[in-house]
Structure formats: structure tokens, C-alpha cells
Design a protein that fits this description.
The protein is mostly helical. Helices cover about 25% and strands about 0% of the residues.
Amino acid sequence: MNTFETIAIVEDQGQICVAGLPFAPGTQVEVIVNAKADGAAAGSGRVDRLLAALDKGRNVIPLGAFDRGELYDRDVLR
């Protein structure tokens, strides 16, 4: 999926104009509009996307119980 992000200002009658899109004419696109966050929280959307990606990539399969030997006395760690 190709993503293009930009900032636009809402004009009269609730209209926005987005020019210079990197898609071929006739390409169907999905449009999502969010109000821009203020200064301190401006990066929060990026942080949320990063955390969501990390959640998706983490191992969610339970491994069961480990005994002390499996945790601390493995040859791999020496």
C-alpha cells in the first residue's frame, strides 16, 4: 500500500484541496481526515503507529513455564 501524507487547511464551506498527489489519474484512493495535533502531542500519531507495529510483531504464543536451568544456565549465553 502506498501512503502519502500532507497537511491542508480547511477552506470556506469545509473544503480542502490536495494537489501534487503521487498517484496516477483515475487511481482510487482512501481519504482519512484528522485535525492536526498541537505542539506537544504532534508526534503522538507516529508514536501510536510505532507502538501498534511493535504490538503486531511481538511473540504472542505462550511458551510455558521455565525452570532456573533454562533461564540462567544456557550455553548460548556463555
